[in-house]
């Protein structure tokens, strides 16, 4: 299989060099997975626009979705990144481990992570109990559409890392013994 190297700033297009500079300014570094997307002259700008688009979910909900989707898809890079981002958005380590196990003590968030995990694992299909509970907790059709879009964005990133296996540049997510939900 082809080995993927993380491209340097000098190895990407001028458009992506500008994006690298903005990422470095905002984050202090260019995450390896974003750098790898820069092999495509248009991919990085397209992905960032998709990630930064408005959503009916708040940042904490988006992080919960990102983490559970990455767990289901077995992407250690994204699990690692979203454990860090989850803490930055107010989750405790215990809450993050619960989310990785597709549960939460918060009933509304619990319905969200259960449905996100179910949709991811079953490729867009879900148990009607999970869908009904999602709606019962106050989520709407708009939220369902935004959930599917969030899952699709994160799944693309998961697939990219699962294939390329580029180095993880976040504290590596510990293995998780999955509990029976």
Describe this structure in words.
It is a single chain. The chain has 181 residues and is mainly alpha-helical. The protein folds into 2 domains: 9-51, no CATH class; 59-164, AhpD-like (Up-down Bundle). The protein is built from 9 helices and no strands. It has helices at 14-27, 32-37, 43-51, 59-72, 76-88, 93-100, 107-121, 128-136, 141-164. α4 packs across α9 (141-164). The longest helix has 24 residues, at 141-164. It is globular and about 50 Å long. The N and C termini lie far apart (36 Å).
Describe the protein's topology.
Layout: H1 14-27, H2 32-37, H3 43-51, H4 59-72, H5 76-88, H6 93-100, H7 107-121, H8 128-136, H9 141-164
Helix pairs in contact: 4-5, 4-7, 4-9, 7-8
Helical content class: 55-70%
Might you state the CATH topology name of the largest domain? AhpD-like
Structural class: mainly alpha
**Biggest β-sheet: count, sense, barrel?**
none
Number of domains: 2
Low-confidence stretches: none
CATH architecture title of the largest domain? Up-down Bundle
Main CATH class of the largest domain: Mainly Alpha
Order of helices and strands: HHHHHHHHH
What does the overall shape look like?
Answer: globular
Q: Could you report the average pLDDT, rounded to the nearest whole number? A: 95
Q: Name the CATH superfamily classification of the largest domain.
A: AhpD-like
Strand residue content: under 5%
* Helix segment tally: 9
């Amino acid at each position: 299989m082809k080995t993927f190297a993380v491209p340097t700033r000098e190895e990407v297009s001028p458009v992506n060099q500008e994006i690298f500079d903005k990422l470095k300014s905002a984050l202090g570094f260019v995450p390896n997975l974003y750098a790898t997307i820069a092999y495509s002259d248009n991919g990085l700008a397209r992905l960032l626009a998709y990630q930064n688009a408005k959503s009916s979910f708040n940042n904490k909900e988006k992080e919960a979705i990102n983490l559970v989707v990455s767990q289901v898809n077995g992407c250690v890079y994204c699990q690692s990144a979203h454990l860090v981002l989850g803490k930055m958005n107010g989750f405790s380590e215990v809450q993050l481990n619960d989310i990785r196990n597709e549960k939460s003590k918060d009933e509304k968030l619990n319905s969200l992570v259960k449905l996100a995990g179910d949709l991811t694992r079953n490729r867009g299909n879900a148990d009607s109990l999970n869908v009904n509970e999602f709606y019962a907790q106050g989520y709407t059709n708009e939220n369902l559409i935004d959930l599917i879009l969030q899952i699709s964005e994160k799944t693309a990133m998961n697939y990219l890392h699962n294939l390329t296996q580029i180095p993880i540049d976040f504290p590596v997510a510990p293995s998780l013994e999955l509990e029976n939900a």
